[in-house]
Amino acid sequence: MRILLTGKNGQVGSELQKALAPLGTLYSFDRAACDLEDEASIRAVVRDVKPDVVVNAAAYTAVDAAENDSERATVINAIAPGILAEEAAKCGAMMIHYSTDYVFDGTADGYYKETTPAFPQSVYGRTKLLGEENIQHIGSRHLIFRTSWVFGIHGSNFAKRILQLAAEKSELRVVSDQIGAPTSAELIANITSRALLQAFRDPQSVKDGIYHLTSQGQTNWHEYACYVVQAALETSRHYRLAPDRIIAVSSNEYPTAAPRPRNSRLDTSKISKTFGLTLPLWKHHVDLFLKEILDGGH
After folding, report:
1. DSSP labels, 8-23
2. Model's pTM, two decimal places?
3. How far apart are CA 16 and CA 186, in angstroms?
4. What is the pLDDT of residues 24-48, one digit of tens each?
5. Cα Rg of the chain, angstroms
6. Which among 124, 211, 224, 239 is annotated as catalytic?
């Protein structure tokens, strides 16, 4: 199997390099080697590799910056995935792509299903939804994994930022009215690998389309921050911040350029049933991440 991976150095891309390598010949590209803002570059890379699978882990993920940079966000998140899917179709390759909970408005009471109408409230969310639609419009074989609250050893994320602030501050204010499930980049990569194998070995069992992929359970950003800081304090004394000094605040007290979904819970029953998965609770991979960060000095 010939696999083309974009965004190899990102949170998910870094883990995908490890997870996909055993499946065949992996061709990994960073922004310099495959520039998603350059249509000619995208087409040339795919035509040169002639892949069986295109895995697009590259994206414009600066949610707040996107509000004033919509043109660039649109090119990377919406137009480029369509071009990749078009080239994948020409060489008979499957397309795997990653999307986000931001395609929803976050006002629902329960869990969002893949069939729930999307209603993004930010430029980031709108461009990611357009990316999904462009891939589906091409009609090539595809899997789109929507995920949320991604964290990993590589790149920047909420948990890393909290650890940094815990070493600097004695008090912190964190939003408590946004709920979701922290989801490990390693988990996303490993399930991608499993899904890809099944799609090639038993094509009839895997339908094209969107699948929600997150850890199980739920938390809010305040509880998540407290959990991370408590683990840090149990490992090291150089942190100044204690969990009881993390103050819960509302989203209204912490305004951001791009609105965040209040509810980011995604129903994962479709992916679990299709691929025979028992997805772990969010704390499982957070614990593994913290152990590696705190013991390994990342």
Report:
1. TTSHHHHHHHHHHGGG
2. 0.95
3. 8
4. 999 999 999 999 999 999 999 999 9
5. 19
6. 124
